[in-house]
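pinging the channel bc i need a second pair of eyes. not urgent but kinda urgent?? the chain im working w is below, pasted from the shared doc
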Amino acid sequence: MSESTLVPLQQLRQRLRAAPAAWPIELPAPPTETSAHAAGPLDRLNRPLHDLRISVTDRCNFRCSYCMPRHVFGKDHDFLPKPELLSFEEITRSARIFVGLGVRKLRLTGGEPLLRRHLERLVEELKQLKMPDGQAPELALTTNGSVLALKARALKDAGLKRVTVSLDALDDTVFRRMNDADFPVSDVLAGIEAAQAVGLGPIKVNMVVQRGVNDDQILPLARHFRGTGIELRFIEFMDVGTTNGWRMDQVLPSDQVRQRINHEFPLVAVEAHQVSETAQRWAYVDGQGTVGFISSVTHAFCGDCNRLRLSTDGRLFTCLFGSQGHDLRSLLRGNHPDDQIAAGLRQLWQGRSDRYSQLRAEGKTPQQRIEMSYIGG
């Protein structure tokens, strides 16, 4: 990043504070019974609403440079005060409304979600939700794995189905350097083992690949997870937010990552379970499992994106690379019935036309974007 593009630290902190959303959610007149129970909404690009990602905290105990660099999120950084966070009751109410609109998958994220106290209580509440067909929505969690060994059993007992663990290196020195918290890789591996032991699965492990930073860890991680039943996924370094110093020359295209693995362990493409999957999956020819590639930079998949993100302070983002959210918290805390809120959310999704990654390829991207730690990955 050039010196001319750096933003003064205080200005960055003010921007990162989750200020009241500039875009309110417009509420129509109370819907009729017929419209309230209509089929799930489609956005302007004909994409259905399927996934809701819920950030339960803006705090994390890691300072990974691509997400929460320490020069911005230092010891004096102002995190959200408790009254600004959505309560478990508000999160559950939001999820219930969205499930009624067609959401079939709920994912808890952060920051680091396991830093939110008593998270298993929220899992218990969300597990009680039912979709219109009577089935429970899929309930998953993304974590850095730092305290997963301590929490795996309680989360499973509460009703969590599966976990995704972020792990950017197998070598302890590289891993400590990347998390910038001197945290040992052995504890994350222990968390993965604990999750597998209690039946939180299928487990996925995500590696953000940066050229010249940790790309030497691609093959060690592939060797480690082959044959374990755990799917390793490689994520291209993305320009999420504005503080991670993203540069195109640090992006290692997924095609090159796959070539490295294929040279040692031949791969064959696997048909996607559903068109909206973010990862392209490949299987080891010898039957020792699968790997995935999430290629937002070189192979944009905006056309099939069906995800909505709820921030820690109750703002809705229709794109991971969004700049401003839509204020749901004020509606939850106001005197508005669920069916009226649902009608407003339906209109919000129907007006969605986001396709940031495709526009990036055309050089048409906004300069300011929300930080990933506020809305999850």
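so The chain is about 30% helix and 15% strand. and The domain at 36-375 is CATH 3.20.20.70 (TIM Barrel). — does that match what u expected or am i reading it wrong
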